[in-house]
Amino acid sequence: MNNPKLFRSKKDGESPEHIMKKLVLFALTAIALVISPTAPAVEGDPEAELKGLVESIKKKLQQGKTSKNDLADDLKAFDALEKKYEGQKTDAVANISMFKAMLYVQIIKDTDAAEKILQYVVKEFPKTQVAGNASQALDALGMQKKAEKIASQMVVGKKFPDFNATDVNGNPANLARLKGKVVLIDFWATWCPPCVGEIPHIKAAYTKYNKKGFEVIGISGDRQKSTLTNYIEEREMPWQQVFDQGGKLSMTYGIRAIPATFLIDGKGVIIAKNLRGPALETALEKALN
Question: Across-strand partners of 173?
């Protein structure tokens, strides 16, 4: 499955995961640029002391030591640095907490701890560039956690939460108007080879079962609406297509990789997920009979 990077931040249209990686890279690059690789950890210099701590962590990570226990001494060192420079409200000092937060996100995988640290940075260093990065990271974490929670609830036997969208032709697209029919919700994009590979199967199923009560709603993660409309016209795809601008629907349903499909019965209940190839027709034969 392709990683769609469908979850856009309000600011720049990037996924939460991509934002996090950029922020980690930013933190590492900032430290590397300010301090020479051979520079010692100078007492009284927060940038140099952070650099020394980062070097220690990098060595552990290279050895495969990535758990909270493995990094316990380093986390205590972060705490000590924060305490030591708590009276200085500069970017250099804010970077100490920012890097610790990124460590919790990317390595330790403890987003709750990371959120508390990021909130601290925003509150305590309001006039710094780092606070702006922390605020962006908080937004990304919030979207990511929401998506993960929703994704865990999108299981067979559960109702598919309805949505209200407009298709590329300006018509309403939702499940309510298709009540009583079996519907395939297809999260896809023209740039996704596995998604495109499924189109002949969906098209065959639509042709065979549409008059028996089968409908399809495609939700496209393409960046340009014209890319989608040209594609579906060229390939004669007659079912509804929604241009998911900004990845709003994908984020709403916790979609983190595509293709992602949900087969929904006439009562709005998910009866199958991620059907591939002939499996779709097999499921439809059962559902419609």
Answer: 165
Domain layout of the chain by residue ranges: 16-151, 165-288
CB 250: neighbour CB atoms within 10 A?
A: 25
Tell the residue number behind the tokens 């922390």, with chain if given. Answer: 134
| Share in percent of the chain as helix, strand, coil (round to 5) | 55, 10, 35
Average pLDDT of the segment spanning 16-31:
51
CA proximity to 23, closest of 138, 158, 110:
138
Q: Which two tokens stand for residue 282?
A: 């097999």
pTM, two decimals, is 0.65
Return the higher-pLDDT residue of 206 and 15: 206
- Strands 240-243 and 214-220, by their bridges, are parallel
Asked if residue 157 lies in contact with residue 26, where contact means CB atoms within 8 angstroms, the answer is no
Span 164-193, average pLDDT:
95
What is the per-residue pLDDT across 242-275, written as a single tens digit (0 to 9) for each?
A: 999 888 898 888 888 899 999 999 999 999 999 9
Edge-to-edge strand ranges of the sheet holding 182-188: 240-243, 214-220, 182-188, 260-264, 270-273
Q: What is the mean pLDDT of residues 99-119?
A: 92
- Taking CB atoms within 8 Å and a gap of at least 24, the contacts of 147-154 are 147/7, 147/16, 147/251, 147/254, 147/255, 147/256, 148/254, 149/254, 150/252, 150/253, 150/254, 151/253, 151/254, 151/255, 151/256, 152/254, 153/254, 154/253, 154/254, 154/262, 154/270, 154/273
- The hierarchical CATH code for the domain 16-151 is 1.25.40
Alpha carbon distance 11, 137 (integer Å): 12
Summarised one tens digit per residue, pLDDT across range 72-103 is 999 999 999 999 999 999 999 999 999 999 89
Place of tokens 């995961």: 17
The topology under which CATH files domain 165-288 is Glutaredoxin (3.40.30)
> Which residues have C-beta within 8 Å of that of residue 35, sequence separation ≥ 6?
47, 48, 51
